[in-house]
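Entry 14: structure prediction run for DNA primase. Input pasted below.
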Amino acid sequence: MEAGSRWTTWWQRRDRQRARPDGADPAARLDQLLGAVRAGFPLAPAAHPAGYRCSCDRVACPAPAQHPVSFAWQTQATTDPEQLSRWLSRDPQANFVTATGRVHDVLDVPAEAGRLALERLTAQGVEGPVAAVGEDRYLFFTATRGTPQDEDEWWDSALDSTPDTMSEHPGLRWHCRGSYTLLPPAALPDGSQVRWLRGPDLPLPDPLRVLDVLTDACTEVGAVAEEQWLIG
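Run finished. Output tokens:
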């Protein structure tokens, strides 16, 4: 009986790893995604790895497994846990994106700058959710600027609705209204993951305070913010 139990566990683990390139347990994934929903982050289904390719089957997809499934992702994005469960039932391998500029913005920087900035923000007592995209990028979740009364301060972000442009902006990117980012947990075709370093249950900090620290960090590591960052 004990041996049979070990085999059953092994088969369940193997099936989970087949279902998700990162080997993530479905229940654990759902729990993390529901945590983001409880924090008010609107989610929409995204493409996922299909071997070393993107599940969208687009030839030379510019952002494999990092873009929404539907062009209507802004309308789809929701905090309804039942809808999230339906999406996962339909496609257990799906990644998810979160629409920015509603509840939160995301400041997206090279990992080297992100590590430096995270240390400094922690020393300053500035909390907030932070995610890592493989070994390449850090995502700092902040309160949103929303739609300021002064239209000159309102930025419409088109960065990820045209993901072909992502490689053109290697420095700091500000995802605000009209944009999105991948939400942990997510898998990428190269085997890396999008994972939380500090979870979505933390309070969202002021974006301008985080921006100051990130700008300095980007400059110090050579990703000069003044020349390479993008406010969508």
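Notes: The mean pLDDT is 82. Will compare against the previous run tomorrow.
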